[in-house]
Design goal:
Chain lengths: ~130, ~130
Amino acid sequence: MTELLKSKKISETPFRKEVLAIFRNYTNAIPLSTVEKELKEYNRITLYRTIKIFIEKGIIHEITISGEESNYAICHEECSTAAHHHQHIHFKCSSCKKIFCVEVDQFPSIILPNYKIKQLEIQATGLCQKCNV
Amino acid sequence: MTELLKSKKISETPFRKEVLAIFRNYTNAIPLSTVEKELKEYNRITLYRTIKIFIEKGIIHEITISGEESNYAICHEECSTAAHHHQHIHFKCSSCKKIFCVEVDQFPSIILPNYKIKQLEIQATGLCQKCNV
DNA sequence: TAATATTTGCAACATTGTTGCAATAAATAT
DNA sequence: ATATTTATTGCAACAATGTTGCAAATATTA
Ligand SMILES: [Mn+2]
Ligand SMILES: [Mn+2]
Ligand SMILES: [Zn+2]
Ligand SMILES: [Zn+2]
């Protein structure tokens, strides 16, 4: 299962495997601080570089929400090295604060008179299943 | 026209008027670095605090795009002190790199089986009118 | 197993944002 | 208009976040 690193053509080091495993253990997106908590021991700089290369290689993607720490999640769709083009939305639960990547069968489209839209990115806020009892 | 500061119940100081005027002179969203360039002379800390209070009071709103400097734009809709609820999308032109707040007559809605969506935030990428010749 | 390419960790630095506090300026009440 | 009250500004000092060059260590390839 750590074939992923090889398939993305980056060296398979213990540290990278460890970080990848952390992302895989979560069903939601997580910030750097969570990755840090999960790692027993780590070098701050190496972690930054690991996150960076994971994003570049299409292993994880970044989710930014105003005024909050960036979150990161595994790319389930096949992401190119060049760009992340996800047809899913980012859902933030206002109760448990977790951020989920959610597939949606009918991704909306917008037409604007004076703009040529190539891509949409959608963030939703609300309640996740667990919190919406 | 500087009534805005009074109406938002914050003191009307020369510096705040100056910063507000800068935002009003742009039709697109701008990052802090642009505000800084426009100001002849300024105190870094005061500027941070000004941006912060402008956001809190619903005068401007923040637009965050992955891996980029935050951008800020005047709130044209009436924003409460509590939260910014904009029914417009944020459009980033991949050519001129400008970010625009764009009204859309039919704001899309999404229904997800396991989530209760309260609010959507939409970012679009593509070409603006000027760049789409 | 040796040669080569890549990653890691250190030191040092850059950038970005925050806080306490006294001086200053703005708003309000006389 | 002037005094009183309240809020803002700027300084110093700090905290958090992210970056770079480079030598040692490790992974990949031959
Ligand atoms: Mn996602
Ligand atoms: Mn906007
Ligand atoms: Zn939840
Ligand atoms: Zn453009």
